[in-house]
Amino acid sequence: MERKQFIQQAATLGAGALLLRPFSVLAKKAANSDIIGHGHFKYRVNKEWGNLNPSDYPVNDCHEMVMDSQKRLFMLTNEPKNNMLIYDKSGKLLDSWTLKLTGAHGLTLHNENGTEYLYITDYDLGEVYKTTLEGKILLTIRHPKYVGAYSDCDKFKPTETCIGPNGDIYIADGYGSQYVLQYTAKGEFIRKFGGESMVKEDKFKQVHGIALDTRDKANPTLICTERMKNCFKRFTLDGQYLSSIYLPGAYMSRPVFDGEMLYTGVCWSALVHHYLTPNSGFVAILDGNNRVVSNPGGTYPRYVHNELQEMVQAAPIFKHCHDVCVDDDKNLYIPQWNAGKVYPYKLERV
Fold first, then answer.
1. For 139, how many CA atoms within 13 A lie in the half-sphere containing its CB?
2. Residue 133: which CATH number?
3. Which domain holds residue 260?
């Protein structure tokens, strides 16, 4: 489907319409083999990795994961009993802590002059927190109305952050008013860009994720997820729109970079006319030219006349992939949203 046609049809449906098609129509039965993916990016699925006693360490939605310099894996959940679970790569629990958040959603790791910090978004409270790796809050960014950037009636439900080359904090208001807000490292407001639109290229319909793209060292850019239009959008660091990367059929979560590769969890899979498949999802992997080279759990990425064809879930392995964490051995860890409170799956590179 052409991107223009998709946008026109989506606009006809309306901003909030999410039509569901029965799962059996869209997905095949799981393959006998537990190896998924394509080309040089194939993986063995390990669903038992990280499983814990839910009475002691419950999870609700497993939203995002990052790996620190000590190769510890930090997993964020919106279960207030233990917002953060910290694993080693074998799946052993090392530690846990909580901020008692019910809307914990976005998790960013940033190395600041040799010290690592976490940035956590909470869409329920409408706040962003900078913390130590032990969970001590060092900075809180509140509703933008307090700095005159939003009106009192504007919603602020932040979903993601990224940190610029100079330490500026970028916040994606993905469940709120669809802006990206830029702050200094001290939390001083600089600007906002975007806003809500289903058709304008420099605006968003669910700016769910954001990341800093440093693959071109001389020209770092922002990559923003526009989930409802199945694309990533590229912006300059001061908020000027550059281009879009269209992934037809994929309702993506945030972009995650590892070297030249770009990974994303696909939270929903869809066929033509953007009917969303219940309990669907897969992982998409793009190369340095932003071409999809593998879809673990999804259909083979096919290009016709240089146009990527629609991608859907191929086997019911995942339910709503919400993030991808890449370790130093190129294994993947997949947290899932609304998936029956399962712990993250590990995809072991083969």
1. 14
2. 2.120.10.30
3. 3-349
List the beta bridge partners of residue 244: 233
User: What is the DSSP secondary-structure string of 224-259?
Assistant: EEEGGGTEEEEE-TTS-EEEEEE-TTEEE---EEET
| Closest by Cα among 290, 166, 156, 157 to 223 | 290
Please list the pLDDT of the chain residue by residue as tens digits (350 residues).
444 444 444 443 333 334 444 433 333 344 434 899 999 999 999 999 999 999 999 999 999 999 999 999 999 999 999 999 999 999 999 999 999 999 999 999 999 999 999 999 999 999 999 999 999 999 999 999 999 999 999 999 999 999 999 999 999 999 999 999 999 999 999 999 999 999 999 999 999 999 999 999 999 999 999 999 999 999 999 999 999 999 999 999 999 999 999 999 999 998 755 678 889 999 999 999 999 999 999 999 999 999 999 999 999 999 999 999 999 999 999 999 999 999 999 999 99
Number of domains comprising the chain: 1
302 C-beta neighbours (distance < 10 Å), count = 11
Closest CA to 115 of 127, 125, 103, 130: 130
Distance in angstroms (rounded) separating the CA atoms of residues 239 and 287? 24
